[in-house]
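Worked example 3 (structure in, sequence out).
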């Protein structure tokens, strides 16, 4: 039987922007090897595979599982599905842009209720909506947390990027942030520094694989609530992601944990501009410590 692979761009209102993701809405019966082969053939940074969950009580087995997904969590009365995410090279525990793409694809095919995605990182509540007259979705991440980064790891990451310590914004200290996947957060002191991204992919990829980092969340703070971001993704075989919902959620948790934003806060992250695929990620940071971060975006089909 042919496998229906849908293609969407997330965090954009035009197919020329955002981050492409492929989606298989009926992946029941597909084994892991087949999923990986499909993701590699499509070549997008992630492909999402949806299977049914009976009873709606499946817990993820990664960090954050069993704690619910923000205000939604595994106890939502909406439909429950299991979702796995594969890059062209490997499975990843959670992917924000593929989650938004999958939710909008489900909405395009008649889904109207809230949905809980049971992921390897834990349950993620997803709400379908219309935003500015266009289909959109909001995910609520698993509970986020922030970890220190070892001096040696920071030095190696900077060396792989070709950055110096002086290129960093001292107001936003380096940390590893988690909201379903781990991301090293590095803030550039200037937008010009962020705009020059020429890095050693093999060297950075080796460090990220060793430390379990999914992307680097490289940001420049343009105002208290507006950021520019770039996300190298060598563990997935991708030089740079045009929009990274998981990293956006992690950044929201990082800013709250370090008291770097007045909460509750609504953030806007602009990503993909340097790649010619502009993306807009809207992030809501609740005031309560440890609660999930909301990330909202549009998605459009790619023909």
């Amino acid at each position: 039987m042919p496998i229906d692979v849908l293609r969407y761009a997330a965090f954009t209102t035009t197919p020329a922007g955002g981050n492409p993701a492929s989606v298989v809405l009926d992946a029941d019966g597909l084994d892991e090897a087949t999923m990986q082969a499909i993701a590699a053939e499509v070549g997008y940074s992630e492909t999402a595979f949806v299977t049914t969950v009976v009873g709606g009580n499946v817990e993820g087995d990664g960090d954050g599982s069993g704690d619910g997904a923000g205000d939604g969590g595994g106890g939502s009365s909406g439909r429950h599905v299991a979702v796995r995410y594969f890059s062209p090279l490997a499975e990843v525990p959670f992917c924000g842009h593929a989650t938004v793409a999958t939710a909008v694809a489900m909405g395009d095919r008649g889904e109207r209720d809230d949905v809980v995605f049971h992921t390897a990182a834990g349950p993620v509540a997803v709400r379908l909506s219309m935003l500015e007259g266009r289909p959109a979705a909001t995910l609520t991440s698993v509970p986020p947390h922030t970890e220190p980064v070892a001096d040696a790891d920071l030095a190696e990451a900077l060396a792989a990027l070709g950055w110096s310590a002086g290129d960093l914004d001292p107001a936003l200290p380096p940390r590893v942030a988690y909201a379903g996947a781990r991301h090293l957060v590095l803030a550039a002191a200037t937008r010009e520094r962020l705009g020059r991204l020429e890095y050693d992919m093999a060297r950075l990829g080796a460090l990220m694989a060793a430390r379990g980092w999914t992307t680097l969340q490289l940001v420049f703070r343009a105002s208290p609530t507006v950021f520019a971001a770039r996300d190298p993704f060598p563990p997935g075989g991708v030089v740079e992601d045009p929009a990274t919902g998981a990293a956006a959620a992690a950044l929201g948790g990082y800013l709250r944990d370090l008291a770097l934003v007045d909460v509750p806060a609504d953030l806007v992250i602009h990503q993909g501009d340097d790649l010619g695929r502009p993306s807009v990620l809207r992030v809501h940071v609740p005031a309560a410590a440890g609660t999930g971060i909301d990330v909202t975006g549009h998605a459009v089909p790619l023909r």
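Notes: Helices lie at 32-42, 96-108, 151-161, 191-195, 201-211, 245-257. The longest helix spans residues 96-108.
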